[in-house]
UniProtKB/TrEMBL annotation:
SUPFAM superfamilies cross-referenced by the UniProt entry: Chorismate lyase-like, Winged helix' DNA-binding domain
Ranges of residues in domain HTH gntR-type: 1-69
GO biological process terms on file: negative regulation of DNA-templated transcription
Superkingdom, natural source: Bacteria
InterPro entries per UniProt: Bact_HTH_transcr_reg, Chorismate_lyase_/UTRA_dom_sf, Tscrpt_reg_HTH_GntR, UTRA, WH-like_DNA-bd_sf, WH_DNA-bd_sf
An example Gene Ontology molecular-function term: DNA-binding transcription factor activity
Name this protein carries in UniProt: DNA-binding GntR family transcriptional regulator
PANTHER family referenced in this protein's UniProt entry, alphabetically: MANNOSYL-D-GLYCERATE TRANSPORT/METABOLISM SYSTEM REPRESSOR MNGR-RELATED (PTHR44846), MANNOSYL-D-GLYCERATE TRANSPORT_METABOLISM SYSTEM REPRESSOR MNGR-RELATED (PTHR44846:SF1)
Sorted UniProt keywords: DNA-binding, Transcription, Transcription regulation
Organism: Deinobacterium chartae
Length: 231
């Protein structure tokens, strides 16, 4: 297995937990190569991907720096997609639905070991003739591998997990942030590269175990999220 995904996943966890102080550079590529016992080129590839995803930035001659804290605010609920597009005919296209081996990154978010099987579901959601939401979902195969026996172009994955597979889902953790679409997402949503969008990350639990982890890319020019709360 290539080593750079493990380095990337480890560094990402450190960045998200503020292990590296804001304003100070990360360890240099030679230092990372020595720590992880890899070549400098492998360490650079991990940093390159973190930079593309917006976790770090480089200053020539100074080093690589954390992009800074994302300030977390409030509690919000986001309803199922079919309720987002009321009044429009919604559709779901399955781009991929298969079993794969967990990469180090996916192993971390599903709290399993690298190489264990996971279900990967990649869907494109639309309303009318517009593509609006991209979904990439990873499901714990041991807990819910039979999800692939269902028609996921029509059925709600949440309903399949609860009503068909009998899982008792107890908790959801989610975050919402603004991003600029990369080439893959922009092409699927048929918008220009770099278009503003929302990235919704969601982890679903059954007891203390994570059943699923999903990323949604939502077009920023078609959706706004709101909440009501007591002042």
């Amino acid at each position: 297995m290539a080593k750079y995904p493990l380095i990337k996943a480890t560094l990402k966890e450190r960045l998200l937990s503020s292990h590296y102080p804001e304003g100070l550079p990360l360890p240099s590529e030679p230092q990372l190569a020595k720590e992880f016992e890899v070549s400098r080129m492998t360490a650079r590839r991990a940093i390159d991907e973190l930079e593309r995803e917006g976790y770090v930035y480089r200053i020539q001659g100074a080093g690589t720096f954390p992009t800074g804290k994302r300030f977390r605010q409030g509690v919000f609920r986001i309803r199922p997609f079919r309720e987002w597009a009321r009044g429009a005919e919604t559709g779901t296209r399955i781009l991929q639905a298969r079993v794969l081996d967990a990469t180090p990154e996916i192993a971390i978010v599903l709290q399993i070991q690298p190489g264990e099987p996971v279900v990967f579901v990649h869907r494109l959601r639309s309303a009318g003739d517009e593509n609006l939401v991209i979904e990439k979902r990873y499901i714990n195969f041991e807990m819910a591998g039979d999800v692939l026996k269902h028609n996921l172009a029509v059925e709600s994955i949440h309903e399949v997990l609860v009503e068909k597979l009998g899982l008792h889902l107890t908790r959801v953790e989610q975050s919402l942030e603004a991003v600029n679409l990369r080439a893959e997402e922009a092409e699927l949503l048929r918008v220009p590269l770099g278009t503003a969008a929302f990235l919704l990350r969601r982890a679903t639990y059954a007891g203390t175990r994570r059943v699923a982890y999903v990323n949604y890319w939502v077009r920023g020019d078609r959706y706004a999220f709101q909440d009501t709360f007591e002042p």
